[in-house]
Amino acid sequence: xxxxxxxxxxxxxxxxxxxxxxxxxxxxxxxxxxxxxxxxxxxxxxxxxxxxxxxxxxxxxxxxxxxxxxxxxxxxxxxxxxxxxxxxxxxxxxxxxxxxxxxxxxxxxxxxxxxxxxxxxxxxxxxxxxxxxxxxxxxxxxxxxxxxxxxxxxxxxxxxxxxxxxxxxxxxxxxxxxxxxxxxxxxxxxxxxxxxxxxxxxxxxxxxxxxxxxxxxxxxxxxxxxxxxxxxxxxxxxxxxxxxxxxxx
Length: 249
Prior knowledge:
Blueprint: E1 3-13, E2 19-29, E3 33-37, H1 44-52, E4 59-64, E5 74-77, H2 89-99, H3 108-117, H4 133-145, E6 151-155, H5 163-180, E7 183-187, H6 191-197, E8 200-204, E9 211-216, H7 225-228, H8 231-248
Parallel strand pairs: 3-7, 3-8, 5-6, 6-7
Antiparallel strand pairs: 1-2, 1-4, 8-9
């Protein structure tokens, strides 16, 4: 499978002397769903920010398969929805296209398409204060998808949600990924979530973070409630939990 990006010995040293990452090596294949798990403070979010271009590495290399690099190919979904409270759902989704100078009328069909895809049809004129936490996160995901990215970065997007909402959004995210064919890098603290969603799970050590294990998850897609109670799923969860305990030791 063709890779979309690779890191070699990637590291990040902050001005205060904190070394967040030290020697991160990973290859991310096009169309894959890769989850990253690790202890708090191990540099998972820093790693995503470097890939997104929001932070620069202190050493090592980030290599893109495409000569154009990350330009116009990445969307980022943060842990908090970070919506504009004065703007409607539709206007929040339109924001990245407006910043690129694209006219509202020219992209109306694209906005409608992603609004429908994330299950927000009928809420286009609603304001963030009128939405539940799960619906706000759907707006954030729609805003990321409207740019039609090749690579979708998600930094613990479901961490603050209740379990029922989180499971539903897991299902919806997988459905969209399979339909759209993007590459996904997904940071989570949940071993169970990582195994359910992913084609691979990368386990990071405590700070300074590096990849201690990279485990392929050979569970068939599409995945559903039966997947979560299957023996194979349980085996993978135990394996990732064990690798995580080793990485933290």
